[in-house]
Design goal:
Blueprint lengths: L3 E7 L13 E6 L2 E5 L5 H8 L7 E4 L5 H4 L1 H11 L6 E5 L3 H11 L8 E5 L3 E5 L3 E7 L7 E7 L8 H6 L6 H7 L4 E3 L2 E3 L13 E4 L7 H6 L5 E5 L7 H7 L4 H11 L3 E5 L9 H8 L5 E3 L5 E3 L5
Parallel strand pairs: 3-4, 4-5, 5-6, 12-13, 13-14, 14-15
Antiparallel strand pairs: 1-2, 1-16, 2-3, 7-8, 8-9, 9-12, 10-11
Length: 305
């Protein structure tokens, strides 16, 4: 189903630091960019990461706090000035459309490309054919959503000898069967399952946004290959995490363990941490496969066997 990777464009919370921009994660899949949140200066981070502005793109905003959405307006203007023509799809909570429209009006700037908007509610937000994006309510100080991108099942391994035995000529018909579509040979219909192995699972990526851990999110993220979970505080500030409706690195690891994910990526660090080694250390006491996101870090998500 093609390459799938995450590029971390911003990993700080609240305010940027010398080394970290504000929250934004790009998921790159088969030439498409799915951008989760757009903190200030996101377009500059995209330039550094080599992510273009003119291709297929969908933007998903978790919530309407400034460190997650203020970069959207600048990004729209940059796209327009660089000649974008394709539709840009925006998904987010109530208030996002008004935010964009009011800022565009005040700046006397009308993007020269079409923009669509869909208000996010719990459940399937987007069915793109080969994958879906789902949303689940997060537990934060304002309405907020967590997201998963989940690929649909892939066709099983293709067995040429079975196709030959059934009289299917090599070429276009093999291609159709390999991609899960039945073909006609004379007066017979050959179905993909006759010449392929069992279907193979797709990949699943979870992105928390800002939230406290909840049982609902544990189930929502179950089986993710990669879970990106906010880790604003270390253990010594657990009370502040509860008060501000954020999570500690240890709590992120507990969600990862209970959800049975493959890898946990910590992000959304309080700017008080110049070195996030302590947060990684505390998370690894609970869940071993943990990394801390850095700005412009790229993470490949391999196909499942």
């Amino acid at each position: 189903m093609g390459d799938l990777k995450l590029v971390f464009l911003g990993t700080s919370s609240a305010v940027p630091t010398k080394d970290r921009g504000l929250s934004s994660i790009a998921v790159l899949r088969k030439g498409e960019v799915l951008l989760f949140d757009a903190g200030e200066g996101v377009q500059r981070a995209m330039m550094k990461a080599g992510i273009g502005f003119g291709g297929r793109m969908r933007v998903f905003i978790t919530h309407m706090h400034g460190d997650h959405c203020l970069g959207l307006i600048g990004m729209l203007q940059t796209m327009g000035l660089l000649g974008r023509e394709k539709l840009l799809e925006l998904y987010g909570p109530r208030g996002l459309l008004e935010f964009v429209e009011s800022n565009v009006k005040m700046l006397h700037y009308c993007p020269p490309f079409p923009i669509s908007f869909k208000e996010v509610r719990e459940g399937v937000v987007l069915d793109a054919g080969e994958y879906v994006v789902k949303a689940h309510p997060a537990l934060h100080s304002i309405p907020s959503f967590s997201y998963v991108l989940e690929e649909k099942e892939r066709p099983g391994v293709f067995y040429p000898d079975k196709a030959v035995a059934l009289g299917v000529p090599r070429g276009r018909l093999w291609h159709e069967l390999q991609h899960g579509r039945p073909v006609r040979v004379g007066d017979r219909v050959i179905r993909p399952e006759q010449v392929t192995g069992p279907k193979r699972p797709g990949r699943k990526i979870g992105i928390s946004g800002d939230t406290r851990p909840t049982e609902g999110l544990v189930e929502f993220f179950r089986g993710c290959d990669v879970l990106v979970f906010e880790s604003t505080y270390d253990d010594s500030l657990a009370d502040r995490a509860v008060e501000n409706l954020h999570s500690t690195a240890r709590e992120a690891a507990e969600v990862a363990r209970e959800s049975g994910v493959g890898k946990l990526v910590l992000y959304h660090f309080s700017p008080r941490y110049r070195d996030v080694g302590l947060l990684v250390e505390q998370a690894r006491e609970v869940f071993p496969n943990v990394v801390a996101a850095e700005d412009l870090m790229t993470l490949e998500v391999p196909l499942r066997s």
